Structure to design on (147 residues):
C-alpha cells in the first residue's frame, strides 16, 4: 500500500526535535537573564548602601549625577567584559561542534559574539541604573548626618 506525504511535512519532521530544543533554550535563557538581573540589582543595591558616605562626600565636593552613575557602572562593565572574554571562546567551541552535526554548515561570525556582549552590557546598565541614579540624586546631607 502506498502512503503519500508532502515533502515539506517530511522535512519538518526531521527538525521537530531541534525546534523543540530551540524553544526550551529560549525559555531557559529568559529565566537565566531574569535571575542574573535580580542578582545584579541586589549587588548594585548592596554597593549603593555600602558607599553612601563616599557618594555624599563626592557630591559635596562637586561631583555631578553623571559622575556618580559612571562610578557605579564602571565596575560592572569591567566585570561583564571579563566574563565575556572567558565565555566567548567556550561558546564558540560548543556552537562550532553542534553546527558540525548538520549537512549544510555555516560559519559563526565574530559580530554575533560582539552583539551578545553589547546586549549583555546594555542589560546590566539598565539593571543597575535605577540604584545608581537613586544614589546620585540623594541628598548628601542625609548620608553624612551620622558622622
Amino acid at each position: 500500500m502506498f502512503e503519500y506525504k508532502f515533502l515539506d511535512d517530511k522535512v519538518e519532521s526531521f527538525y521537530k526535535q531541534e525546534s523543540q530544543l530551540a524553544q526550551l533554550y529560549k525559555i531557559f535563557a529568559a529565566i537565566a537573564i531574569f535571575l542574573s538581573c535580580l542578582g545584579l540589582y541586589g549587588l548594585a543595591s548592596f554597593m549603593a548602601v555600602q558607599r553612601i558616605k563616599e557618594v555624599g562626600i563626592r557630591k559635596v565636593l562637586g561631583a555631578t549625577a553623571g559622575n556618580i552613575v559612571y562610578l557605579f557602572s564602571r565596575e560592572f562593565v569591567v566585570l561583564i567584559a571579563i566574563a565575556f572574554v572567558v565565555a566567548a571562546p567556550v561558546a564558540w567551541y560548543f556552537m562550532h561542534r553542534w553546527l558540525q552535526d548538520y549537512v549544510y554548515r555555516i560559519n559563526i561570525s565574530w559580530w554575533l559574539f560582539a552583539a551578545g556582549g553589547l546586549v549583555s552590557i546594555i542589560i546590566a546598565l539598565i539593571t543597575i541604573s535605577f540604584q545608581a541614579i537613586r544614589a546620585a540624586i540623594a541628598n548628601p546631607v542625609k548620608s553624612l548626618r551620622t558622622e
